[in-house]
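User: Here's a structure from my thesis project, written as structure tokens. My advisor, Dr. K., wants to see whether a designed sequence matches the one we expressed. Can you design one independently, without my sequence as a hint?
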């Protein structure tokens, strides 16, 4: 959204009434035709704006879109989301963010969308991404760490998602399933796909793409049975832009602390407190095999500690964990 469109939106929101095209044009120092064009671009973004001759323009309803303007109103993050690119529809916010990063987009740039036509989950799965309901958000990061250290970022993202969900919906009973799924009442509410472009010893960029089911309703959508949403868990619809703002604030704080301390040590207790699998017998599906053992938490570098039946502890760096014998695909 351009600077003029964003200012017009603010004027209409602040007034709550009809504001004449002449008044807007004088305040912004642009022509009435330019005002009209910007109002149309706001309408294309998804805002309902009424236009009545002799009265002017009025914002009809405050819709909840995860646009730069809406998120910016709520977020106090310093560097994360200083640039937010909002798309009404995109194949995948991660694909777009990886492309923008390759073209030089700055550290902290964020891509959001109202819907995705090819939303991607981990392991090549699809991420159900209908319009008007959920949050789809990808962050571009340029961490000054090695590729091995950057593999800790999924843990950071899940800690930030848990904090953001807890702040938006206090009392929400959710937990983490390694590596970075958030579950509520046995169903998945959020997942994150982290992608990286790196050389052997240098990270070029990382994209952290999080999907959170916000207002998805099983009665009105073909929502997967294994999924839940904030609407289903709390009984109320929730604001995507407020949630996005909280996620950016929490991610920024966790990321900055991680970089300052140089490991995940300071987050291990928080991770364990939220872990759904800690102490349980689990199956971990890696690229090549399935390992069964008791989950003993994670290490300072984010690897899963798995106690095998002979008592030894094996570290697993990548995979998917499920309770032993339950191979749910979510
Ligand atoms: C998973 O749990 O499998 C990860 C899901 C990640 C989905 C998000 S939605 C925003 C971003 N864009 C994508 O295409 N995927 C991630």
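Assistant: Designed independently from the structure alone:
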């Amino acid at each position: 959204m351009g600077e003029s469109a964003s200012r017009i939106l603010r004027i209409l929101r602040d007034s709550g009434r009809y504001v004449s095209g002449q008044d807007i044009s004088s305040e912004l120092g642009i022509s009435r035709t330019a005002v009209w064009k910007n109002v149309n671009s706001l309408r294309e973004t998804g805002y309902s704006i009424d236009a009545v001759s002799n009265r002017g323009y009025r914002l009809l309803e405050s819709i909840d879109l995860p646009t730069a303007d809406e998120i910016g109103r709520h977020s106090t993050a310093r560097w994360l989301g200083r640039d937010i690119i909002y798309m009404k529809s995109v194949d995948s916010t991660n694909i777009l963010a990886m492309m923008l990063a390759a073209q030089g987009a700055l550290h902290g740039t964020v891509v959001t969308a109202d819907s995705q036509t090819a939303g991607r989950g981990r392991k090549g799965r699809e991420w159900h991404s209908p319009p008007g309901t959920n949050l789809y958000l990808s962050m571009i990061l340029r961490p000054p760490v090695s590729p091995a250290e950057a593999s800790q970022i999924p843990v950071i993202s899940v800690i930030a998602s848990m904090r953001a969900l807890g702040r938006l919906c206090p009392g929400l009973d959710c937990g983490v399933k390694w590596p970075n799924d958030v579950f509520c009442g046995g169903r998945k509410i959020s997942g994150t796909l982290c992608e990286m472009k790196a050389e052997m010893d240098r990270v070029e960029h990382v994209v952290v793409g999080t999907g959170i089911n916000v207002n998805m309703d099983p009665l009105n959508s073909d929502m997967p049975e294994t999924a839940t949403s904030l609407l289903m868990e709390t009984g109320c619809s929730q604001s995507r832009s407020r949630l996005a703002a909280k996620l950016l604030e929490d991610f920024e704080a966790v990321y900055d602390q991680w970089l300052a301390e140089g490991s995940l040590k300071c987050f291990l207790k928080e991770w364990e407190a939220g872990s759904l699998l800690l102490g349980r017998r689990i199956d971990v599906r890696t690229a090549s095999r399935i390992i069964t053992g008791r989950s003993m938490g994670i290490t300072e570098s984010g690897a899963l500690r798995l106690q095998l039946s002979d008592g030894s502890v094996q570290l697993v760096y990548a995979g998917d964990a499920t309770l032993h014998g339950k191979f749910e695909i979510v």
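When you compare it with your expressed construct, this may help: The chain has ten helices and 14 strands.
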